[in-house]
Write a structure and sequence with these properties.
alpha/beta; 20 strands; 385 residues; nine-stranded parallel sheet; globular; five-stranded mixed sheet
C-alpha cells in the first residue's frame, strides 16, 4: 500500500498510473516495491500486493543521513569565476592555479597573481561561512626530486614550510587538507608508494601541529573503471600504512565513456556503482575511517544528475564535490552551463532533509525517501547502474 506521497523529479507530471510513466513506485513502510506500469494499469494494488509484481527495483540502502551545507561543494578552474549567490559549503582549490608549484616559484618567493587567486577563494568562501579544501600536490621545480613537479619534494622540510606559510596566512579558513590529487593516474605522481605515504605523513604532521581540528584527507585516488590495481593504488597505500596519516579517505568516482564530439576523446560521469567497491576495499584493508567524495562530475550536467551524485554519495560519503564550475579544457563539464539557479535548486532540495532509504531501478532511475516523502528521479539512463 502507499505509505508516502510520491513526487516525480523530472519527466511527466501525469497521474501516477498514467501509461506515460515508465515505472510506478509504491512504499510498503520499509522499502519501495517496483511495479511495471502495465501491471499497475491492470491491478493498481492500492490495497496491498496480492500477486507477485515484476521486481524492477533494488533496495540499496536504509539508514539515516541528514544533508548539511558542508556536504556540497565545487571548484573553479578560473579561480575568479565563482558567481555571487552560489550555495556551497566547501570550496576545493584543485585546478585553480593555486598549487604549490603555481605559487612558490623559488624558496620563499611567491607568484603574487596566483597567491591572489588563493586569497580570493579563501576570502569569498569565508564571507559566506564556507570552508576551503586545499589540495597539496605538484612540487615546485626547485623543491622537487629531479626538478619535476610530479615528483615528491627532495626535502620534507620544504613541504612543512609551505603548509606553515598557508596556515599563517589563512588559519582555520582552510579546514580540509587533501593529499596528492589522483596519484594513480598516469603522469600525476612519479614517486613510489613509500614516497606518497611520506608526503601524506608530512602533510598530516604539519597540519595537526598548526591546528589539531583541521581535517586531513588521503591522496584522492581515482579509476575511471573499477578500482586501480597498479603500484600506486589505494590498496597499496593502505598496506604501506598511509591511512594512519588521514582523518578521511578521499576518492574520485568517475566512469569514462567514448566522446562522440567535444574537446576530449572521453567524457566523464559520476559512477554510483564504484562507491561500494571502494568501501569494500577499505573494509578488506582494515580501514574504518570516513569516506569523502572529493571530486566527481558529469559531461552532461543536469539537475537530476546532481541529485544522483549527491544522493548516492550520501549513502557512503560525508561530502560530494562536483567538478567543476567553469572548466577550461573540459568544456562539457562546466556547471556554469547548468547555471546558478539549477545548482542552488539541487542543493536546496536536499539541504536540511534526512534521507532514510535509496533504491534503484534497472533502467537507471532511482527512488529516495527524504523526510518521509518518496521521490522518483528519472531520465538518467542505465550507463551508471
Amino acid at each position: 500500500m502507499i505509505t508516502a506521497p510520491e513526487i516525480t523529479i523530472g519527466g511527466s507530471d501525469a497521474n501516477p498510473l498514467d501509461p506515460r510513466l515508465f515505472r510506478q513506485v509504491y512504499g510498503d513502510g520499509t522499502q519501495y516495491i517496483g511495479i511495471q506500469t502495465s501491471d499497475a494499469l491492470v491491478t493498481p494494488l492500492v490495497s496491498g500486493v496480492t500477486s507477485a509484481p515484476n521486481a524492477v527495483l533494488t533496495s540499496l540502502w536504509t539508514g539515516s543521513f541528514t544533508f548539511t551545507t558542508e556536504f556540497f561543494g565545487t571548484m573553479a578552474f578560473s579561480p575568479n569565476s565563482f558567481p555571487d549567490g552560489l550555495t556551497q559549503g566547501i570550496w576545493r582549490t584543485h585546478d585553480s592555479n593555486t598549487r604549490w608549484s603555481d605559487i612558490e616559484t623559488s624558496q620563499g618567493v611567491y607568484n603574487q597573481t596566483n597567491l591572489g587567486y588563493l586569497d580570493y577563494i579563501v576570502s569569498k568562501a569565508t564571507a559566506i561561512g564556507s570552508k576551503v579544501m586545499y589540495s597539496v600536490y605538484k612540487t615546485p621545480t626547485w623543491a622537487a626530486v629531479g626538478g619535476d613537479v610530479t615528483a615528491p619534494p627532495s626535502s620534507q622540510a620544504y613541504l612543512t614550510n609551505w603548509i606553515n606559510f598557508l596556515y599563517a596566512r589563512y588559519g582555520s579558513a582552510i579546514k580540509y587538507w587533501e593529499g596528492w590529487n589522483e596519484p594513480n593516474i598516469a603522469g600525476s605522481f612519479t614517486g613510489n608508494i613509500a614516497a606518497l605515504v611520506q608526503h601524506q605523513n608530512t602533510i598530516h604532521t604539519a597540519v595537526k601541529a598548526n591546528n589539531a581540528s583541521s581535517v586531513v584527507i588521503s591522496p584522492s585516488f581515482s579509476m575511471r573503471t573499477g578500482i586501480s590495481s597498479d603500484t600506486l593504488s589505494m590498496a597499496n597505500f593502505f598496506t604501506a600504512g598511509g591511512a594512519a596519516y588521514c582523518d578521511r579517505i578521499g576518492y574520485h568516482f568517475y566512469k569514462s565513456f567514448i566522446a562522440p564530439t567535444g574537446l576530449h576523446g572521453v567524457r566523464l560521469d559520476f559512477d554510483r556503482g564504484q562507491i561500494p567497491l571502494v568501501v569494500a576495499q577499505m573494509a578488506s584493508s582494515g580501514v574504518s575511517k570516513p569516506l569523502s567524495n572529493t571530486e566527481t562530475g558529469s559531461s552532461t550536467p543536469t539537475f537530476n544528475r546532481l541529485l544522483e551524485n549527491f544522493i548516492f554519495s550520501a549513502v557512503y560519503c560525508d561530502m560530494s564535490l562536483v567538478y567543476s564550475w567553469d572548466v577550461v579544457g573540459y568544456d562539457d563539464m562546466r556547471l556554469s552551463l547548468l547555471g546558478v539557479s539549477e545548482w542552488n535548486r539541487a542543493v536546496a532540495f536536499l539541504n536540511g532533509k534526512t534521507m532514510t532509504a535509496v533504491n534503484q531501478f534497472g533502467n537507471g532511475d532511482f527512488a529516495v525517501i527524504l523526510d518521509g516523502v518518496g521521490y522518483l528521479v528519472s531520465g538518467l539512463g542505465n550507463a551508471n547502474t
